[in-house]
Write a structure and sequence with these properties.
The chain is of the alpha+beta class and 178 residues long. It contains 4 helices and 10 strands; from the N terminus they run αβββββααββββαβ.
Length: 178
């Protein structure tokens, strides 16, 4: 009887452990002042800076790989139109850009709509891939960047995908971005 209980307990532990391990791999981050939440890889370093009208969050495992969230409060009347624009002058912003690999409108989850850019660029004698989500909600524009050197990008891709798909608003403007 003891052996049967021990085996049953072992089986339950084996079945439940991956569920806890998956949730333990990410930490919830919420910023009420800038109205967003996101899940970040739990073992990575993170730091943030809040100013009156802007916010920066960095999460990184090493000096070349990072997840960055930028939030900027704006008085611009039509942020959603700007975010959804088909015209982006990226070279004016970053002259190291090699090419835009992909761009398109996406819906991350309910009420989170934006523009997704996938770019390749040079920096510090390395070539990088970067996925960038640009979205707007209630007078705040958000830029979520996930980047790594090309040679290691796909090692971190599951973290990038989980982080990008976890991005959400604490309070959403239901009419934005459609």
């Amino acid at each position: 009887m003891k052996t049967r209980k021990l085996v049953l307990l072992s089986l339950v532990t084996l079945l439940i452990t991956p569920l806890f391990a998956e949730t333990a791999r990410y930490a919830d981050y919420k910023n009420e002042a800038f109205n967003y939440e996101i899940k970040l890889p739990a073992g990575w370093f993170s730091t943030h800076l809040d100013l009156e009208d802007r916010h920066l969050l960095y999460c990184y495992p090493d000096r070349f790989t990072k997840i960055k969230v930028k939030a900027l409060k704006s008085d611009e009347q039509d942020l959603d139109r700007i975010v959804q624009s088909n015209i982006w002058k990226i070279r004016d912003i970053d002259p190291r850009l090699n090419e835009i690999i992909e761009t398109g409108k996406i819906s991350v989850k309910k009420n989170v709509y934006g523009k997704l850019l996938v770019c390749e660029y040079r920096s510090r004698n390395n070539r990088f891939l970067q996925r960038t989500l640009i979205a707007a909600n209630n007078g705040i524009i958000y830029v979520v960047e996930c980047r790594a050197p090309i040679k290691t990008f796909y090692r971190y891709e599951p973290y990038f995908n989980s982080t990008l798909t976890s991005f959400g608003y604490l309070t959403a403007d239901d009419t934005a971005g459609r």
